[in-house]
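BUG: 3D viewer hangs when loading the predicted structure for this chain

Environment: internal workstation, default settings.
Expected: structure renders.
Actual: progress bar stalls at 90%.

Input used:
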Amino acid sequence: MDRVRSNEHGWCVWITGLPGSGKSVVADAFRRLLTAGSIRVQLLSSDGLREIMTPEPSYSLEERDMVYATLVYFAKLLTQNGTKVVIDATGNLRRYRDDARRQIQNFFEVYLECPLEICMEREVKRGKTYHAPKKIYSKALEGKAPTVPGVGQPYEPPLKPELTLDTTKLSPEQCAQEIVKKLFA
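Structure tokens produced before the viewer hung:
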């Protein structure tokens, strides 16, 4: 972890969890906290990348494989050049995040723990979607979106994340502060 703490080297923090667990708002709060401390960071969002790569996404396994491989590749290149990277992405299969861990020297995984029912409630109420598709759980339950992680597709939680945060108990700002504490401890 010493390399991760150094401000000279690039590092990557992947914030993962079910859709609606708070990934985007936590990633944004974390980015703002770092920026306030004069640490520049690049935020990579799977939903933002998907808008460019697959404007009419199918969310098929093949498409997910392509999007996550590209996301990891970009993060790897950026960190190799000293950039601090935050990935905001579900990465529903553990192998996506494990691939990032293998390829990125200074990798830090943050799991946002949140029950599916709470994620569904949040998704219905949220205003800003941070590039994410709207009403994904409603569409999944109606059979119109069969590939939503946690409903039609599995979400495999990390086995050994560097940090697990319960977003039913912590605000996005508190989560961001906990990430900073752990990352720079």
